[in-house]
């Protein structure tokens, strides 16, 4: 299973590196949306990503950041963005209007997990031990930072606002780590990929936290665009820029900073698990 | 052991008191200026802290107000957490956002002040005061300042920002200033005290010189003039000049006293010569009569024997008077020891004065043999006392003389008269140290006191119902040496 995934990834990367389709001359610039789904606090990374995309597309690229997923999704659905890096949960909620452009590969797979973390000093080994504790969620439109934990509680006929004491949203996985590390929240729901990457780069930020549960594997937060624009030159150029990122020095710097292996076109079925959880908690597509 | 009187500052020398007063004054001035400096420093620090606190609260309120309005825990925490790093100068130790019900929405240190809790009562009280006053409330004991700012949207309260700043460095700075002030002012006080000590000692040096000269004069020395150029300023010049004038006057009085004593001696000699002439003259009439009788009736053996007996007795009396005079006036001090006969001779010398005033002389000479007292000086002491007493006695009065041995060696001479008593001025001569002779009489007693003192003895007055009773104690030379050795 793992070996076939890697072959598939190499094939895709090779194909993308052959030629990068460019948007038509009428396109003055490209607006690309970013959510706090990944390490958006790294300004050097943002500069490198913008530089790579501009080099690949041949037009100026404007990286649009918003505080919440909801704002970015709204802009994407309103056609104000050419594409955006969003979470799997909003993708499945709006799958009828959104199409996949690329999906990141982490440790060779387009998958990631949600982590349930607690204050390191807390004697907790399961979600049940977090009952009555304060809890930091990432974003109400985040799969790993909200949906997974809500789905776990729903399976127990529980609701977050009743199970936890004063749950709140920190609007960013990194913020969840800060909240739990500082003691503002005794537990939190966070993107496993973010936790691992921060633990590697800034161990002090995760030192005060402890992973007490890991979720099933889910489709990695994808890069999407409106379906009606999927075959447009900008969307195609963006898809090629991401899937061909590993073939260019500027792209490799971005991947290295993100600790990703590359991007693949991905398939909607990667997000079936998320769709099932959303349906289970009463938030179907 | 230090006597208690020495602890009384009023008894301390000026050379100590004046520097101490200078040091105290400097310390007082330093204390006043130090208080002013510290007060100004404290005001400046508090104003600076208040400005910093105001800027801190302004910035924080802007960032936190939307979060407080939405009761957004994360946003409130995020703003507090970022502010802590940005306001390093204020050294915030604690910051929290409270909801209108007083519960904590978020704090910068959630582990000590968790969301949903309430602030400790003391802190809440200080925060209430700080919010009402619009300025920090300082707690010097805890080295903290509590800041607070109420958040409101129009008339709708949204909550309150409460922060605590570490004012330890401010207090350390104040303590450092106090230490510097103490050190500087203490050093100044010491320097001024030392300078005051040296200056006062220099100023008092001429006065101290006069004091030492006075002490020497009081111990029996002669007043010695001082160098007037040692004086500083007109006051010292006047003091030293006055001392020198007093020394010169004293020397002149001494010289005059010596002259007076000599004249008194001469007068005494004159009186005694007159007495001796009288004593010689008295029998002369009888002797001449006896000679005439012998010339006329020398053939008659009975008359001749009677005339010769008269001549023998008369000449014997003259011989005795002359001998007594010779013994009294020809001898020199240190010639011989005092014997009972020496006092008996005096009886002849004063017999004329006694008879002239019609006095009765009671004579008790109980001195056994010789005593180791200078014969010449001893006799002169007794003679002066006798002549004084005779002069003081009323006509037909009784004059008493008694001589005996002093216990421990020496002689005691006691002379009593029936006079009006010893005047106070005369009595003061008995106990006075060396001094000039009294004016207006009393030279004989003054001389006797000086002579008795030169023999190591004294003259005292024994209280009596009538007249004056004086006792001269003249210790033997060996007893004087033993006393000197004992000292």
Automatic annotation (TrEMBL), chain A:
<dbReference type="Pfam" id="PF12974">
    <property type="entry name" value="Phosphonate-bd"/>
</dbReference>
<protein>
    <submittedName>
        <fullName>PhnD/SsuA/transferrin family substrate-binding protein</fullName>
    </submittedName>
</protein>
UniProtKB/TrEMBL annotation, chain B:
<dbReference type="InterPro" id="IPR036097">
    <property type="entry name" value="HisK_dim/P_sf"/>
</dbReference>
<protein>
    <recommendedName>
        <fullName>histidine kinase</fullName>
        <ecNumber>2.7.13.3</ecNumber>
    </recommendedName>
</protein>
<keyword id="KW-0597">Phosphoprotein</keyword>
<keyword id="KW-0812">Transmembrane</keyword>
<feature type="transmembrane region" description="Helical">
    <location>
        <begin position="20"/>
        <end position="38"/>
    </location>
</feature>
<dbReference type="InterPro" id="IPR003661">
    <property type="entry name" value="HisK_dim/P_dom"/>
</dbReference>
<keyword id="KW-0472">Membrane</keyword>
<dbReference type="InterPro" id="IPR005467">
    <property type="entry name" value="His_kinase_dom"/>
</dbReference>
<dbReference type="InterPro" id="IPR036890">
    <property type="entry name" value="HATPase_C_sf"/>
</dbReference>
<dbReference type="InterPro" id="IPR050428">
    <property type="entry name" value="TCS_sensor_his_kinase"/>
</dbReference>
<keyword id="KW-1133">Transmembrane helix</keyword>
<dbReference type="InterPro" id="IPR003594">
    <property type="entry name" value="HATPase_dom"/>
</dbReference>
<dbReference type="GO" id="GO:0016301">
    <property type="term" value="F:kinase activity"/>
</dbReference>
<feature type="transmembrane region" description="Helical">
    <location>
        <begin position="176"/>
        <end position="200"/>
    </location>
</feature>
<feature type="domain" description="Histidine kinase">
    <location>
        <begin position="275"/>
        <end position="478"/>
    </location>
</feature>
<keyword id="KW-0808">Transferase</keyword>
<dbReference type="Pfam" id="PF02518">
    <property type="entry name" value="HATPase_c"/>
</dbReference>
<dbReference type="Pfam" id="PF00512">
    <property type="entry name" value="HisKA"/>
</dbReference>
<keyword id="KW-0418">Kinase</keyword>
């Amino acid at each position: 299973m793992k070996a076939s995934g890697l072959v598939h990834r190499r094939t895709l990367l090779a194909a993308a590196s052959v030629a990068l389709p460019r948007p038509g001359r009428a396109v003055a610039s490209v607006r690309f949306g970013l959510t706090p789904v990944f390490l958006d606090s790294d300004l050097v990374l943002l500069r490198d990503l913008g530089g790579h995309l501009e080099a690949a597309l041949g037009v100026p690229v404007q990286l649009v950041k918003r505080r919440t997923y909801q704002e970015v999704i709204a802009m994407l659905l309103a056609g104000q963005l050419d594409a955006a890096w969003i979470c799997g949960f909003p993708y499945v909620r709006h799958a009828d209007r959104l199409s996949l452009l690329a999906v990141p590969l982490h440790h060779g797979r387009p998958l990631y997990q949600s982590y349930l973390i607690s204050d390191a000093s807390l004697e907790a080994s399961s979600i049940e031990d977090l009952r009555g504790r304060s809890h930091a969620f990432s974003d109400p439109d985040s799969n790993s930072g909200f949906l997974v934990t809500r789905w776990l509680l729903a399976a127990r006929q529980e609701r977050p606002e009743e199970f936890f004491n004063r749950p709140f949203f920190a609007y960013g996985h990194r913020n969840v780590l800060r909240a739990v590390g500082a003691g503002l929240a005794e537990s939190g729901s966070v993107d496993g990929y973010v936790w691992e990457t921060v633990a590697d780069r800034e161990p002090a930020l995760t030192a005060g936290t402890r992973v007490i549960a890991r979720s099933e594997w889910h489709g990695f937060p994808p890069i999407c665009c409106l379906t009606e624009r999927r075959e447009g030159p900008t969307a195609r150029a963006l898809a090629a820029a991401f899937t061909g990122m590993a073939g260019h020095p500027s792209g490799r710097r971005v991947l290295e900073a993100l600790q990703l292996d590359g991007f693949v076109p991905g398939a909607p079925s990667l997000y079936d698990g998320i769709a099932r959880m959303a349906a289970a908690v009463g938030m179907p597509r | 052991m230090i006597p208690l009187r020495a602890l009384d500052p009023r008894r301390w020398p000026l050379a100590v008191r004046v520097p101490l007063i200078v040091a105290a004054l400097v310390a007082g001035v330093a204390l006043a200026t130090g208080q002013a400096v510290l007060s100004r420093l404290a005001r400046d620090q508090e104003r600076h802290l208040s400005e910093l606190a105001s800027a801190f609260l302004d910035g924080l309120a802007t960032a936190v107000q939307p979060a407080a309005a939405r009761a957004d825990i994360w946003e409130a925490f995020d703003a507090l957490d970022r502010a802590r790093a940005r306001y390093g100068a204020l050294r915030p130790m604690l910051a929290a956002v409270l909801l209108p019900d007083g519960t904590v929405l978020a704090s910068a240190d959630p582990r000590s002040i968790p969301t949903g809790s309430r602030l400790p009562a003391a802190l809440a009280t200080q925060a209430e005061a700080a919010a009402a006053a619009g300025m920090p409330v300082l707690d010097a004991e805890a080295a903290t300042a509590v800041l607070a700012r109420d958040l409101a949207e129009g008339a709708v309260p949204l909550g309150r920002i409460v922060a605590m700043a570490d004012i330890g460095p401010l207090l350390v700075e104040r303590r450092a200033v106090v230490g510097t002030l103490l050190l500087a002012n203490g050093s100044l006080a010491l320097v001024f005290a030392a300078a005051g000590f040296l200056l006062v000692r220099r100023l008092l040096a001429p006065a101290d010189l006069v004091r030492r000269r006075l002490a020497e004069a009081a111990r029996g020395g002669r007043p010695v003039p001082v160098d007037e150029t040692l004086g500083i300023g007109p006051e010292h010049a006047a003091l030293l000049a006055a001392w020198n004038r007093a020394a010169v006057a004293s020397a002149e009085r001494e010289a005059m006293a010596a002259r007076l004593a000599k004249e008194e001696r001469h007068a005494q000699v004159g009186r005694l010569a007159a007495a001796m002439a009288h004593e010689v003259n008295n029998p002369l009439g009888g002797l001449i009569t006896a000679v005439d009788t012998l010339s006329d009736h020398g053939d008659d053996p009975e008359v001749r024997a009677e005339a010769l007996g008269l001549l023998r007795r008369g000449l014997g009396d003259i011989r005795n008077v002359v001998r007594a005079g010779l013994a009294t006036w020809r001898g020199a001090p240190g010639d011989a020891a005092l014997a009972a006969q020496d006092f008996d001779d005096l009886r002849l010398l004063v017999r004329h004065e006694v008879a002239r005033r019609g006095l009765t002389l009671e004579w008790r000479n109980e001195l056994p043999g010789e005593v180791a007292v200078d014969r010449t000086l001893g006799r002169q002491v007794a003679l002066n006392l006798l002549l004084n007493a005779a002069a003081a006695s009323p006509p037909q009065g009784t004059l008493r003389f008694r001589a005996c041995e002093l216990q421990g060696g020496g002689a005691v001479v006691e002379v009593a008269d029936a006079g009006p008593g010893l005047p106070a001025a005369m009595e003061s001569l008995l106990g006075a140290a060396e001094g000039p002779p009294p004016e207006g009489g009393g030279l004989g007693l003054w001389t006797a006191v000086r002579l008795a003192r030169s023999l190591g003895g004294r003259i005292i007055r024994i209280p009596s119902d009538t007249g004056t009773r004086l006792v001269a104690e003249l210790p033997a030379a060996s007893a004087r040496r033993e006393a000197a050795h004992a000292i």
